[in-house]
Amino acid sequence: MNRPKLAVLVATAALGAGLASCYDEARPEYADIGVRWLDASNQELGEECIRLPYLPGGTVDHRIDIGSGLTLRIVGMSRNVELTLEGTSEPVPRTTITNDSLRLGYTGLMDAVAPSGDRYRIVLFGPCDPSLIPLYPDGGYDY
Amino acid sequence: MALRVSYTLMLRGRGSAAWLAATLALASSHARAEETDYAVAPRTDERDQARGDGLAAAKGWQVAISAALLFPVGSASGAEGDRLPARYAWQPGLGIEAGWRFARSFFVGGYVGASYGDTGNDARVDWSCNMWSGPSCHTYTWRIGAEGIYSFDPGGHTNPWAGYGIGLESGNASFKGNLHSESVTSLGLTFAKLSGGFDNRAMGAGLFGEVALGQYLHTSTTVGNEDYGYSIEHGRVHAWLMVGVRMVINP
Fold first, then answer.
1. Cα–Cα distance measured from residue A120 to residue B1, given in angstroms and rounded to the nearest whole number
2. Which residues contact A79 (CB under 8 A, 6 or more apart)?
3. Are the beta carbons of B193 and B242 closer than 8 angstroms?
4. By CA distance, what is A27's nearest residue in B?
5. Inter-chain CB proximity B184 and A53 less than 8 Å
6. pLDDT (tens digit, 0 to 9) for every residue of chain B, 251 residues total?
7. How far apart, in whole angstroms, are the C-alpha atoms of residue B25 and residue B47?
């Protein structure tokens, strides 16, 4: 390869890399968290998608009634989201997920037992794209 | 004084009828002039006797209108990355103070103020807001409260003063784009509005500086069409630094 052609090739590659870098930076950084909750037989009881704040100081404070007196409190801020189960028979540690993790792809589980003995499973995922959660044929979820 | 001058001239025996007439005319005109001055200037007992500069200490209603630059400092809340300069850029603002001057040196009244500017220096938000054809990003703040001011030289030509106030404050940041829209409004307490400056009383204008220490207590966030309220659990102290000019009515 002669020198001018090599220079054109290098310049093109550099331009392409630069454009790719710009494209990557230009992707929206908005995060959301998906929540599905299921009973002991893996039957889905509900699903919600919550957009998280982007501005510093923005705070989403949301509660989901899981059932049997259980409540999932979601406090989402611009950097991370904190999840707390309220009304459990035993205290459950607070779960913190970074918004970057949710943007890049995240799946997690929380198991909860109500004072009545009813068991629930909570699926957390991000981004809010249900296709990211593989389904069992019977409607349950493959964790 | 004019009457005393004419009496002296008569005693010296130099008063002819013409002198007397001229003297009385002068005295009369001088007396009218004094009456005119008296109507404009404060009464003698209200003047500052110590300085003798003819400027009376203000009393009664006083109003000040100010224009200033505001600079945010400190943490807005305990959340990670939630600093006041990350939320708000410096802002130009306007303010009004109105109240009552009494006992020469004291002022008690209320204040209101508002400012408007850009979002702060949070790297992600800053980058998004500066994108070509990017989202619309704005912030504004307002404050209201009561304050007291002490004048150190209420009868002087230039009056230095210092004040303390307490009140409420709020700040809003909004981000409106095609993919995401959000508005964050925080409300809190200003527990120490420390201000100071000096007024040129002849001009009715002056310079001032202020440090307003406060803490946000509650945040309302709208993301898309959803509204959320949140009581800040771990508040932090922040400050607004302000420098500006003010015009004073009845300085």
1. 101
2. A98, A99, B79, B80, B81
3. no
4. B128
5. yes
6. 333 433 333 334 333 344 434 433 433 444 444 444 444 444 444 545 545 456 788 889 999 999 999 999 999 998 888 999 999 999 999 999 999 999 999 999 999 999 999 999 999 898 889 887 778 999 999 999 999 999 999 999 999 999 999 999 999 999 998 888 999 999 999 999 999 999 999 999 999 999 999 999 999 999 999 999 999 988 999 999 999 999 999 99
7. 29
